[in-house]
Amino acid sequence: MVNRTLARRYATAVYELATYEAAIDRIGADLERIVRSIESDEETKRFFLAPVVDRYEKERALTKAFAGRVEEIALHALLLLVRKHREALLRPMLEEYHALEVSGRGLEPLVVTSARPLGKEELERIVRRIEGIYGRRFEARLRVDPGVIGGLRITMGDRRVDGTVAGRLEQLARTLNVPL
User: Fold this and answer.
1) Is 177 a residue whose pLDDT tops 90?
2) pTM of the prediction?
3) Domains of the chain
């Protein structure tokens, strides 16, 4: 189980350093590049997450792979996670960093999940409507999940509005006390 609070602390520290260096976007992009690089290859991901691999060996490999290719702050954040045996926090830290970026622009993150891809105009119409209801500005991201069957699931921070067919079926199963 990933500790989101701890991931948020790391992300906040990295974000503050990035703000001081006026490199918020570059460091965010570099963190994204690091995560994609590690997660794109299953063997690399196993190496990175393996608790039995020597920390110094991991640090040497990661430094060799990323030094000079990413901002120092991003590299040092990665190496700090390795030193503290918290490699599993890399992806959640990136997500929390992105949330801080969005918040720094005066927006709140919004995730719209649908069974099929939505057009840009359709997504913008949904976001405008939600902004009107809540009186806030959002930066929306679309997730496509065929498992929702139909409808939309809207996630705003800790709040979730589930208008999906799958959500309705789950609610019905709970009401009838039938496991799905």
Assistant:
1) no
2) 0.72
3) 4-103 (1.10.520.20), 107-176 (no CATH)
